[in-house]
Write a structure and sequence with these properties.
This protein folds into two domains: 200 residues, inorganic pyrophosphatase (n-terminal core); 120 residues, Diaminopimelate Epimerase, Chain A, domain 1 (Roll), CATH 3.10.310.30. The protein is globular, with a radius of gyration of 19 Å. Helices cover 39% and strands 18% of the residues. α4 packs antiparallel against α5, α5 runs antiparallel to α6 and α5 packs across α7. By secondary structure, the protein is α/β, with parallel strands linked by helices. It has twelve helices and eleven strands. The strands form two sheets. The chain has a six-stranded mixed β-sheet with strand order 6-7-8-9-11-10. The chain has a five-stranded parallel β-sheet with strand order 2-1-3-4-5. It binds manganese (II) ion. The site of manganese (II) ion has 6 residues, from loops.
Length: 327
């Protein structure tokens, strides 16, 4: 990613930040660490500039995120609806649909779009979209470093680091390139707490979460001579262990730990008759194309979709898709 490529856009975004008095920062449904980190970093920058700012992402989020600096900016949906704002900043969201249409394409209000999904629909008035970035927070960092480096406090550095940490799976995924490591290094230099963040967000698990993981691993199955794997999380499993769906982030990666497995699917019964599917690819199989077929999306190696139907229906649809891909 070259800084020059977005030089003009970065200036436009800063100009919007300076010109407007209030901003709504929006993330995608069921926000992850990259989404939350991007939202809070931008939120804190705007707050320090004297702006009125609120951050929101629909769906569930882990309460761990409430420990992050800037978490006071996260508001419930009721405080979004009545919020009179003149700027919208969307983060980590390839489509406005991923924000449950809280973000509307650039028209009568100014919309800034920071994202790293290849399927991004460029819905912003200013679009900073670079699929070569391992995390959206890397683009936010590049923006701040270019136009307002003095505004990157240790608190903002923590939020930006969180995105790189989580979206690279703790610097293990294939997107862990020199730029990701360089960004992480610079952010630690600016005060990000590498150890504490890795401890809280990667290593530490609650007792009940580990018990749930045990039952999820018990559901692990191999298909197509061990080239694909599936796992599932039912409402009953959550009830038995006293957990919630938001406790299951990262579970899909246990399937990806199997050496010869190329494709992995984790099925989550999010509501009766609604199955959310997380897909992972271990090689060049493009799981985002399979996800898009069912209205989902994502990256080549990590994507998600929602299927209306029961677990068996979802399994059949996804395994049929896998069969086409590895044939
Ligand atoms: Mn991301």
């Amino acid at each position: 990613m070259s800084a020059e490529r977005y030089e003009r856009e970065f200036r436009q975004v800063l100009e919007l930040f300076e010109r407007h008095g209030s901003a709504l920062v929006i993330g995608h449904v069921d926000p992850d660490g990259d989404c939350i980190g991007s939202m809070l970093a931008i939120g804190m920058m705007l707050e320090a500039m004297g702006k009125t700012v609120r951050c929101f992402a629909p769906g569930d989020r882990s309460e761990l995120f409430d420990r992050m600096p800037g978490a006071h900016l996260l508001v419930p949906i009721e405080q979004v609806r009545g919020f009179d704002h003149d700027l919208v900043v969307a983060v980590d969201s390839p489509t406005t649909g991923r924000t449950e249409n809280l973000v509307r394409p650039c028209a009568d209000e100014d919309v800034v779009n920071f994202d790293h999904h290849p399927t991004n629909e460029q819905y912003g008035c200013v679009n900073i979209v670079d699929e070569t970035a391992a995390a959206t927070t890397m683009l936010v960092y590049r923006f701040m470093k270019t136009v307002a480096p003095e505004r990157i406090t240790a608190e903002i550095a923590d939020c930006l680091y969180l995105g790189v940490l989580m979206d690279t799976g703790g610097f293990r995924f294939q997107n862990t390139d020199a730029e990701a490591l360089r960004t992480a290094g610079e952010l630690v230099g600016l005060g990000a707490h590498a150890y504490e963040l890795a401890h809280d967000f990667i290593y530490m698990k609650r007792f009940r979460t580990l018990k749930l993981l045990g039952t999820v691993l018990d559901s692990l199955e191999l298909h197509f001579d061990g080239r694909a794997a599936t796992m599932q999380i039912t409402r009953a499993m959550l009830e038995r262990t006293g957990t919630e769906m938001k406790d299951t982030e990262g579970f899909v990666d246990y399937g990806a730990a199997l050496d010869d497995v190329e494709l992995i699917a984790l099925f989550r019964e999010t509501a009766p008759g609604e199955i959310r599917v997380s897909l992972r690819s271990r090689n060049d199989h493009d799981v985002s194309r399979l996800a898009e077929r069912f209205g989902g999306g994502g990256h080549v190696r990590a994507a998600g979709l929602t299927i209306e139907g029961d677990l068996e229906t979802a399994r059949r649809l996804v395994l049929d898709g896998f069969a086409e891909m590895i044939r």
